[in-house]
Amino acid sequence: MPRTDIARRVYNHTWKLDPILRSLLDTDFYKLLMLQMIWGMYPDVDATFTLINRTTSVRLADEIDEGELRAQLDHARTLRMSKKEMIWLAGNTFYGRKQIFEPEFLAWLEDFRLPEYELRRQDGQYELHFYGPWKYTTMWEIPALAIINELRSRAAMKSFGPFALDVLYARAKARMWAKTERLRALPDILI
């Protein structure tokens, strides 16, 4: 199995785009269930989803490069469900029920894409607005939050050198291992 040196990867940002979102399935499963409900019951309802940072002391627009944010949002809009993902959604059992997703919904989902966005910068903050049919705008919630959060983390680590990043990740792995060992000691948990 190939080994990934996470610290080196974080430090060496020489690639053009390191996508944060790699699949439309990178979301809460609940969002897919809600999407099917919205698609079936409210197909013609328009809705606006807006993402704002309510912690005004954290000035996201001062920390996150707007070009990087737009590149990640634009990349997310290029994603489509793959054939394998569609087969997985159609064939799995969820909550003890087979075929939880209707075939007509899955046929619609095959061509799904995230709608356009509006990005504004105001007083050190970004405001993201997603307008359009609810069945499209609802799917921006998790990807938009993930993109903002990851870009803020990446920005925070840009000042770290390779050694500091290596130590940071070593500490994180040690903490994760300690938690795993505590869980492993519990009688009813298999790891």
General description of the model:
The protein is mainly alpha-helical and 191 residues long. It has nine helices and five strands, in the order ααβαααββαββααα. The strands form two sheets. Strands 1-5-4 form a three-stranded antiparallel sheet. Strands 2-3 form a two-stranded antiparallel sheet. A hairpin with a 2-residue loop joins strand 2 and strand 3. Helix 4 packs antiparallel against helix 8. The longest helix has 23 residues.
List keywords for this structure.
191 residues, two-stranded antiparallel sheet, 50% helix, globular
Question: Judging from the principal axes of the Cα atoms, what is the shape?
Answer: globular
Question: What are the segments in which pLDDT stays under 50 over at least 5 consecutive residues?
Answer: none
The total count of helices amounts to 9
Counted beta strands? 5
- Overall average pLDDT: 90
Approximate strand percentage: 5-15%
Strand order of the largest sheet: 1-5-4
Helix content: 40-55%
SSE order, one letter for each helix or strand: HHEHHHEEHEEHHH
Radius of gyration: 20 Å
Q: From the helix content, strand content and strand pairing, which structural class follows?
A: mainly alpha
* Biggest sheet record: 3 strands, antiparallel
Q: Distance between the terminal alpha carbons, to the nearest Å?
A: 20 Å
